[in-house]
Amino acid sequence: MASKLYKGRFAPSPSGLLHFGSLTAALASYLDARANGGTWLVRIEDIDPHREQPRTADLILYVLEAYGLEWDDNVIYQSRRHEAYQTALVHLIKHRSLYPCTCSRKKLSGLNGTYPGYCRNKPPPAGSLFSLRLKCPDIKIEFHDLIQGKKKFELTQLGDFILLRKDLLYAYQLAVCVDDQFQKITHVVRGYDLIDSTPRQIYLQSVLNYRRLNYAHIPVVTEVDGGEKLSKQNKAQPIPLDEPRPLLVKAMKVLGLNPDRQLRDASVTNIIQWGVDRWNIHRVPATNAIPLSIISDTQ
Predict the structure, then answer these.
(1) Taking a C-beta distance cutoff of 8 angstroms, is the pair 284, 255 a contact?
(2) What are phi and psi of 144, to 5 degrees?
(3) In which residues does the motif 'KMSKS' region occur (predicted)?
């Protein structure tokens, strides 16, 4: 039975083409949505024009179609949603939840990503450029990850985070929360590398009076055991368009499914349906990473 209550999404950035790691994340969110009779949306996170590559957004959509991952409704582009982000910022400013920060990247280097609050209680110098940070109280954020289990974060250990950059570009955390609320997303299935974004987003949702979502974080795919995750920054190879079937089968292995070798000879449509019929999110390994070296092409 179709569930009108379940809405999942895949939200790639057009800073590079999809690689095997991003395919696995897309497949996981797609299978979970379809297995639960829900809808699956695609959102293009194109809020940072300095990092975008020409035509990449269109190519990402073309790749998803070639791999049988067909989305519902219209694709949302964050570059067209600035008014919504500004409305959220105004709400936060009115409630004194933000403060200006003039700190440079050089000043903050070596802090492991945790902002120590240098600018929290002092106004910026006249005429200086500043970002806007969200004040984070000394509280714990707890949530039940559908794959990883119970998670708990000290919000102050994550630090006050930026919602508007010095160059007046909206930050990832703000845009994601606003768009998840706008699209009525209920379930977010994504890579473990984003798990520390989840407590930030849960807190921001509460400040904006948004609903809390369900989260699941799949293990990221690495080149070797203990190595860096496959990513655009690490020059991971784009997935090919000419033969999607072997990579779909391999991605299903990462996600705890047990496809036999004969499935590679099926059509893309049948491979995807095979995955939907057998999907169980609790079979996804509850680990932070899986190396490519242990994902065999044979049984």
Answers:
(1) yes
(2) -100, 110
(3) 229-233
Whether 9 has a binding-site annotation, put simply, is yes
> 179-217: buried (b, 16+ CB within 10 Å) or exposed (e) per residue?
bbbebebbbbbbbbbbbebbbbbbbbbebbebeebbbbb
Instruction: Answer left, alpha or beta for residue 113, where phi above 0 means left and psi between -120 and 50 means alpha.
Output: left
Instruction: Supply 2's token pair.
Output: 């179709």
pLDDT tens for each residue of 74-91: 999 999 999 999 999 999
> Binding residue per annotation — 136?
no
Give residue 289's pLDDT band: very low, low, confident or very high (50, 70, 90).
very high
Question: C-alpha angle with apex 140: 84 to 197, nearest 5 degrees?
Answer: 45
pLDDT digits (tens, 9 = 90+) for 104-140: 888 887 777 788 888 998 888 887 899 999 999 999 9
- Percent of the chain predicted with pLDDT > 70: 93
Tokens representing 266 are 């099926």
> Is the Cα dihedral 177, 182, 187, 189 positive or negative?
negative
Domains and CATH numbers, the chain: 7-78+186-191+213-294 (3.40.50.620), 82-173 (3.40.50.620)
Q: Tokens representing 298?
A: 């044979």
103 labeled part of a ligand binding site: yes
Please check if 177 is assigned to a binding site: no
11 is in an annotated binding site: yes
Is residue 13 annotated as involved in ligand binding? yes
Contact 117, 158 (CB under 8 A): no
Distances (CA, A) of 84 to 114, 179, 181: 27, 8, 11
Q: What is the mean pLDDT of residues 228-238?
A: 63
The reply, when asked if residue 238 is annotated as ligand binding, is: no
User: Would the annotation count 116 as a binding residue?
Assistant: no
- 119 annotated as a binding-site residue: yes
Tokens coding 189 = 């299935």
